[in-house]
Amino acid sequence: MNPVSDLIKNLADQHGRSRHNLLPILQGVVEQEKYLSEFSMTEIARELDLPAAEVYGTATFYSFLEHKKMGRYIIRICKTITCSMKGKNQVLLAIEDMLKINVGETTPDGTFSLLQTNCLGFCHKAPAMLINNEVFTDLTPEKVRDILSTYMKKKGASYDN
Hints:
Layout: H1 3-15, H2 22-33, H3 38-48, H4 52-61, E1 73-78, H5 81-85, H6 88-99, E2 112-117, E3 129-131, E4 134-136, H7 141-155
Helix pairs in contact: 1-2, 1-3, 2-3, 3-4, 6-7
């Protein structure tokens, strides 16, 4: 059997196989696989006896349920008006320049993916971003370059600065 199929079966055993267990199963797959492939969504539909369109619709509705392969580190920049007013655009430009990617892209080596997302809940410390589950606030272009440099050094990534 396929490892993703095994994962989905185990998640269904753990959470249950009814419609209201769909979201925890989707989250479990993303936690392990970093994204929801077409295969995994089809397998979830089969395991829960749901239409594939319902699984896909749910998966694509939520912004933290990625449905394409992502980098090892997913950078999510808050795109609310508060973050924009406090310098989000300059921070985003610094990230794009440093990693040589645009929003929605992944570095060629698969280390970083860059996304914008709705409110992260840190408006009082805007602009804010997440790298995987780690929160960074009160960002400036200089601060974000230091943060990314730290990630690059500790993980052996190599980029032109």
